[in-house]
Amino acid sequence: MPNILRLFLLLTALLLCAVHGSSMPSDCDDDGGDNECSAYLPPAHNPHLTLRNGVRMPLFSMGVAHVTSGSPLVENNRTFVGFSPSKSFRQIELSLQKGIRSFDTALVYGTQPHLGQVLGQWWASGRLQSREEVFITTKVFTFPAHKFGLKRNHPWNLNDLTPQQVSIQTEDYIEQCLHELNVGYIDLLLMHWPSGPGQEEGISRQRRLAAWKVFEDFYDRGWVRAVGVSNFSERHIDQLMQDGAIIWPMVNQIEASPYLQYESILRYCQDHEIQPQSYAPLGSGLLNVQEDAVLLELANVHQKDVGQVVFRYLIQRGYAIAFLTQSPNRMVSNLDVFDFELNEDELKAIHSLSRVNATFGVPTRYELPR
């Protein structure tokens, strides 16, 4: 190739990288370390699921909740535990570069402003063209704050408020979400927890309904495209509808992994047109899922890694998946699960791994009021 042509191609590549604010593409460290992968990929293959109201929700979403010290729910953890929102800047940027367009955040995570800021930079540079290209999930309502290094009387708990006060506070928090995200509307708004631990059942039901009525109002006004719940048992949803809810939850996001499987909740959701969504699909790195002998064997059979086998299992069970990684490689490989299928025996083998109260163990670990 003539030298002048080589020079032209090199200058063209450098110019394109400058326009996109990135360096020349490079290989990614598997742990997302210093050797950052900056190669831009087209939107990832991420099939959409249709919710009961017709809204199309991506199968996969990137979680942006960064907690120090591994898990905040490990008992007797004397190390400081809290959210570290600053970690989300790079993670969101890399996720977008790898083609991910669906994100899962929450008011308590502190990452909503970061998500809105990075998305704004992409719209400003033309790397994203419209709001419709992105799907954003966020969450409000009561939260076990003391487990996350926050005071027990933190306002996000909402456990010491009357139902009338809950209505006012929930409206304020949803407006705060809209302001922090600064992207217009919210695609999916979830009620984060059904209640805090140790709450009396009757008042908890009233608070849930009060908050849900605010959800319904924002949905009716068009500020929220879909509404749902998180960490709810089937009894919590039944109570919500019995107590006066008009709109059924469209999604129930619960912890679900090979080691923790709530069969009754899954069946209930599927029977009532509620899309189940798994978070912590690999046990948040606390359960050594990646070293499980059964999963390793299946990964070898299908020439995949354990994470891909787990994601395939959850998809075949009917779950959408919200996962968290800071590794650019994982951002790509976790979605590469559509070229193989688990047979019935393999599904049963993974199903047999279910334990009791694994990892976070919600929604039952805290014996939340029914």
UniProtKB/TrEMBL annotation:
Keywords for this protein: NADP, Oxidoreductase, Signal
Ranges where the NADP-dependent oxidoreductase domain occurs: 83-354
Residues in the signal sequence: 1-21
Alphabetical list of InterPro entries matching this protein: AKR, Aldo/ket_reductase_CS, NAD(P)_OxRdtase_dom_sf, NADP_OxRdtase_dom
Entry-linked Pfam families: Aldo_ket_red
Assigned protein family: Belongs to the aldo/keto reductase family.
Record's protein name: Deoxymugineic acid synthase 1
PROSITE patterns: ALDOKETO_REDUCTASE_2 (PS00062)
Gene Ontology MF: a single term: oxidoreductase activity, acting on the CH-OH group of donors, NAD or NADP as acceptor
